[in-house]
TrEMBL record:
GO terms (BP aspect): regulation of DNA-templated transcription
UniProt cross-references to InterPro entries, sorted A to Z: CTLH_C (IPR006595), LisH (IPR006594), Topless_fam (IPR027728), TPR1-like_2nd (IPR054080), WD40_rpt (IPR001680)
Keywords: Repeat, Repressor, WD repeat
Protein name as catalogued: LIS1 homology motif
Length: 704
């Protein structure tokens, strides 16, 4: 489909307004230059007033050339003249020489030129400026230049019809998109993110490469791995670092750090011109340069910050142009019929990609009830799944808490008798980090013979056990004070808090902070370095059951025993919103689920929140606590004991009291498979708790 120039121009104006309203400044001015539909004289004059003559020169060059006409010639001449007068070395220095040799040489000499202007520029008196003049404020001269250039622009046939921006309603493009796709909630980031993808496709098809890649950086919606590979292949490693730096920082994670390091290695190779020619073929036969290029691409695909931004949504060709054409055809038709109604406005069911069959299952009032599953694969044989029973656990006490360490090098358990057990692996077992290799743990006991045991609550029946790990220290409680243990020696190094109100859940927050939820519904923010309470958060009436922190949004989410969720800013500690997660769902076995939230967890990208109840689980938006998706178990399923994301966030492991685990897709909640734990162990009918390691395996622990 080919649209006429007027429609293309109108669409560009809508995109320019969108860029301006969203603050995409660099993309805005690059598109002005690439499309040449609007000359922003305000931006041009501000560059001159701030002394950014190179920026002003480049902007003007995008619209006209010195040889285009007399007005363009005069504009460039006056700009270079001012630039020369402000050159630091006015007595024949390098900057002045460059202006003569590069800039003024671009000014064509026409047949009717009297050379008066040129003589004026190179006059000796004009070049030798006294020390007093150097200290004079440059602002008046620059302001006068802007006035003169504006008069020339108004008379310049290349610019005169591009100085006025058309009058548009606020957020015109977003409003149009909302009008033709009213029920579309976007891919994950909403309508605006889908619109950005449509604009990126438009820029790509229109061959606006400069604007395209700058918009990718400013919006961070799509990481163009092909572009990164292209600039690295051209040896433009500064551009590669700039592009990567727009999406991630070397401190974000180990993959980002490694990517920046690989680019630095490429810069080093380039500077030393050290490149060994080797036969192509396997990775081992590749040259160091090719290996580093391949490594950067591989790390990008594994990087949790970039992973979900690598795939651009599939869509029909010229999708945005098509949508605008449909809207304009309707508008023209309705105008001709003198109708101001929105009747018969063209409506589409989706913007990017193909219509999602999953979204059709939602009704207009909220999330669905239950996802219809095909019969999942059953794992009943030990040969189908690796299983591990932790050795030497002799206690008859139930396990209250169980987790891998953040680095996955040990397993920590807290029993209901307030005793801790730690299983680790010997340093010689390097196979631990390899895929599909199951480690052999051993119960760890320090030489001192010390044990880590918490202070018990006065009323054991109502006590809550929880712990959190910070470096080599364990913070733990079993209803009494919060104890701090050294995990290397098992020595108790400190304790704080009080038995009443009782600590029920706590997590660490960046900034050396510890958030502690209590059974009276309050949350205390402790500063560990100053050993003082920084804030007290009040928004719950019942005991705090879970806390979760998002690095992406800098928010803390809390839940209580009544199912209430609260969202707090960790910058101002203001409550942003609260939602009641209780839905009064009934399982197919007619056992009504409780309102108690048993687990909160942000996905690996820190965007969406997993909320776990005994009778169902849900996915919530991290910024708003709006429920995006909910899942109720089948009729044969018993109550849920725990659920957790995999390390890549693609799947969710859901454990049930009857002793089996369901693995479900995190985007659709479709069941992938079901693991029957009774084929591997002999669990009691009480419950199962498990934890996911940062690498490949699941830890399954039977509650005795």
């Amino acid at each position: 489909m080919i649209l006429d120039e007027k429609n293309r121009k109108n669409l560009v104006f809508l995109i320019l307004q969108f860029f301006d309203e969203e603050g995409y400044e660099e993309s805005l001015h690059l598109l002005e230059q690439d499309s040449r539909v609007f000359f922003d004289f305000s931006y041009f004059s501000n560059a001159i007033l701030n002394g950014n003559f190179k920026e002003a020169d480049d902007y003007l060059l995008a619209f006209t050339r010195p040889e285009a006409n007399t007005y363009s010639r005069k504009m460039f001449f006056d700009l270079f003249k001012r630039k020369l007068s402000e050159a630091p070395d006015r007595s024949g220095g390098s900057e002045a020489v460059n202006i003569f040799s590069k800039d003024l040489r671009r000014i064509p000499v026409l047949k009717d030129d009297s050379f008066d202007d040129l003589v004026e520029v190179i006059a000796v008196d004009d070049m030798r400026i006294s020390e007093e003049t150097c200290c004079v404020d440059k602002a008046p001269g620059r302001a006068k230049l802007c006035v003169d250039l504006h008069k020339l622009a108004e008379s310049n046939p290349c610019l005169c019809d591009k100085l006025e921006f058309p009058s548009l309603n606020k957020s015109a493009l977003l409003s149009l998109i909302s009008l033709i796709c009213p029920n579309c909630s976007g891919r994950n980031g909403g309508l605006k993110e889908d619109l950005i993808c449509l604009i990126l496709q438009f820029l790509y098809e229109a061959k606006y490469k400069n604007t395209l890649h700058k918009l990718e950086q400013e919006t961070k919606v799509f990481f163009n791995l092909n572009y990164l590979a292209e600039v690295m292949k051209l040896g433009e490693y500064g551009k590669a670092e700039e592009y990567l730096g727009a999406f991630t920082d070397s401190k974000d994670n180990k993959y980002s750090k490694a990517m920046f390091l690989e680019i630095q290695k490429l810069i080093c190779l380039q500077s030393t011109e050290w490149e060994v020619a080797t036969p192509s073929g396997s990775l081992d036969n590749m040259s160091p340069k090719i290996k580093l290029h391949a490594s950067v691409a591989m790390l990008a695909k594994k990087n949790p910050v970039l992973k979900d931004k690598l795939k651009f949504p599939s869509m029909e060709k010229s999708r945005l142009l098509t949508l605008m054409k449909q809207t304009m055809d309707w508008w023209t038709s309705s105008t001709c019929n003198s109708s101001s109604s929105l009747e018969n406005v063209p409506v589409v069911s989706y913007l990017c990609g193909t219509p999602s069959s999953l979204r059709k299952k939602f009704n207009k009032t909220g999330p669905r009830k239950k996802v219809v599953n095909c019969k999942p694969n059953e794992i009943n044989d030990p040969s189908q799944c690796n299983a591990l029973v932790l050795p030497d656990y002799c206690s008859e006490e139930r396990i209250a808490r169980l987790t891998y360490s953040p680095s996955g090098d040990y397993i920590l358990a807290l029993a209901e008798d307030a005793a801790h057990n730690l299983w680790t692996w010997s340093s010689s077992q390097n196979e631990f980090c390899k895929e599909n290799v199951f480690p052999k743990p051993r119960l760890h006991q320090p030489q001192s013979g010390k044990t880590m045991k918490n202070e018990m609550a006065a009323s054991v029946q109502n006590s809550t056990s929880c712990f959190a790990i910070k470096g080599s220290y364990l913070f733990s409680t079993s209803g009494g004070k919060i104890a701090v243990f050294d995990l290397k020696s098992f020595e108790k190094v400190a304790s704080f808090g009080s038995p009443t109100p009782m600590a029920t859940y706590f997590i660490f927050i960046p900034g050396d902070l510890l958030a502690v939820g209590l059974d009276d519904g309050s949350i205390y923010i402790h500063c560990l370095s100053s050993r003082k309470v920084k804030e007290k958060l009040e928004g719950h009436d019942q005991k705090i059951t879970c806390l979760a922190f998002s690095r992406c949004f800098n928010v803390l989410v809390s839940s209580d025993s009544d199912g209430k969720l609260c969202l707090w800013s960790t910058k101002s500690w203001v409550k942003l919103t609260s939602k009641n997660s209780t839905r009064k769902f009934c399982t197919q076995s007619n056992h009504e689920s409780t309102s108690l939230v048993t687990h909160l967890q942000f996905d690996p990208y820190q965007i969406e929140l997993l909320v776990v109840h005994e009778g169902w689980i849900g996915i919530y938006e991290g910024r708003t606590l709006d429920c995006r998706l909910q899942w109720v178990p089948d009729e044969s399923d018993t109550s849920i004991t725990s659920a957790t994301y995999s390390s890549d966030g693609e799947i969710i492991y859901v454990g049930f009291r009857s002793g089996f685990i369901k693995i479900v897709d995190s985007r659709t909640f479709m069941t992938v498979c079901r693991i029957n734990l009774t084929s591997f162990t002999q669990p009691s009918p009480n419950s199962i708790r498990y934890s996911f390691r940062a690498h490949t395996s699941i830890l399954i622990q039977t509650m005795m």
